[in-house]
């Protein structure tokens, strides 16, 4: 086993000052578009180096573009990984699916899953020379999990799910009732529209955010989306919510996965339902749950101390796989 260290190359204090270095790294990657099975144009980013330790597919969360992972990709690349990131349909630099580009929508959650399968088969596998790993965040974890559950010969040796969307907080409503209400609202609206309370993109002040506790990294993320408004995405549609709830149900009801899994739970997360993560792990013999008590939803945008704990656990998990 080769010795390597996954560690932060930037701090909360110097991240904004070292933008040129970070953006130069991002420009060095291979960024392209490819067509999904239904013709939707999908964006992806890849970073390839000689003698990589392993290849890592990163499945981003909702509203996220690959660029949002710029800092962590820099760290992972320095630690010896090849990196492969798709922009899910309807967000990032991939084609938007509604006249309102800020409306969170997908016709069928399985479209995300099929896109990821196509990305791995057509863009990732031709470049893989060693172990293949996968990591998902939030909605991206749900997409990755459904891909693994529905693909017999996926070839992925280990999966990490960060703040996974394995269930959604629905104001204490039982899941069947919440799903029925969302379906009824979707029918009443007729065409894709925002779920009540959801709105187009707006930059939430740091003091009001539910994502992270690092003001520097939060400001970096908001600056990125302000400078590149084509990356902005707003709230979800009622139809997206129906599809997400159905996907969470499928995740919980599917047979256990036969590969090592690490579930990283953010203890202060109110974006996804942590009890659903506990339920998932209880049914997965090959899964281990690690709770980071003080962390909010966006583990990769958190404070230096939380990210250090995150990186330590990632490194330990991959080392246990012999990588």
Compact summary:
Keywords: Hydrolase. One of its GO terms (molecular function) is hydrolase activity. The chain is an alpha/beta fold and 323 residues long.
Topology:
Layout: H1 19-27, E1 30-35, E2 41-47, E3 54-59, H2 70-78, E4 81-86, H3 109-124, E5 132-137, H4 139-150, E6 159-162, H5 175-189, H6 215-227, H7 238-253, E7 261-266, H8 274-282, E8 287-292, H9 304-320
Parallel strand pairs: 3-4, 3-5, 5-6, 6-7, 7-8
Antiparallel strand pairs: 1-2, 2-4
Helix pairs in contact: 3-4, 4-7, 5-7
Overall pLDDT confidence: 96
Measured distance between first and last alpha carbons: 6 Å
Spatial extent as radius of gyration: 19 Å
Order of helices and strands: HEEEHEHEHEHHHEHEH
Describe this structure in words.
The protein has 323 residues and is of the alpha/beta class. The protein has a single domain, classed as Rossmann fold (3-Layer(aba) Sandwich). It has helices spanning 19-27, 70-78, 109-124, 139-150, 175-189, 215-227, 238-253, 274-282, 304-320, and strands at 30-35, 41-47, 54-59, 81-86, 132-137, 159-162, 261-266, 287-292. It has an 8-stranded mixed β-sheet, sandwiched between helices. Helix 4 (139-150) links the parallel strand 5 (132-137) and strand 6. The mean pLDDT is 96.
Defining traits:
single chain, 323 residues, alpha/beta, Rossmann fold, 8-stranded mixed β-sheet, 8 strands, 15% strand, globular, hydrolase, hydrolase activity, AB_hydrolase_fold
